[in-house]
Amino acid sequence: MPSRVAPVVHCLSGLVCGRLLRCIWTRSHDVPSSGRAPAEQRVHGHQPSAAGSAVGTPTVISSGSRMRLEVLYISGATVATLDACSNWTGADLKRILQPFLQKGVAIAGIINEGTAIEDTQTLEEAGVKSGQLYLMLRSCTYLIEDAGAEVVNGYYVQKEGELNKSPVYANEAGILLFKYKMARGSEYWYLSRDGDLSRSDGDYYRVRSNSKRPPEEGWSWEACPLGRRTTIPTLTYFGSDKDLGGFCSSSTASGEAQSASDTSD
């Protein structure tokens, strides 16, 4: 009497092999959509100098010893009084203090006993103890607000160098505002992460324009992966660095005494 087991085993083996081959074929032909170069390649120009290492605004982790800091303008007017932590960096301090400044200026440097605190230095590494710090301010060319991608918002100052014969701007988070020319000749202003500017991977928003400076209207997230379906930014133009006189004098940076205790964790 012939055995029925062999045909059944043979059938099951064929079914398993067929599914396995189909799975391998499907995966080998599955191409991810991310990382593809845009259909319209941008023409390389002179690259701007490297932006800050931070891509987004960092969360301040409060640890280490506490200290009371009185932050002053060069004029002697008080900016704020902070209950600070020794692990805060220079970049953290800039972010915390920015809301206390008048519109149109950003912090160029924070001085402790005649020495500037580096963005990457902690207060402990810079030898800061309870006492006074002084701010050096720089005029900003643009203020960007209301962007759904929060990292794009902030004050933008002009960087050294040009791209496609136009100025390049950056905010404290390292986001770039620059103009790029496509291979077919069309020109766009972009808000993007620093990096390979020939790709669209780091783009938040753009606007088509051949203007020498970024337009204040017409921005869109179309063809910009990082800003897709988010609120469009609002740009405010304060004037060129030349118009604003570069670093602010103490007379333009006066303000009333303010105090704050940061509670970020």
From TrEMBL:
Which parts of this chain are annotated as the region Disordered?
Answer: 34-57
What is this protein identified as? Cbp20-A protein
Q: Please give the InterPro entries that the UniProt record associates with this protein.
A: Ubiquitin-like_domsf
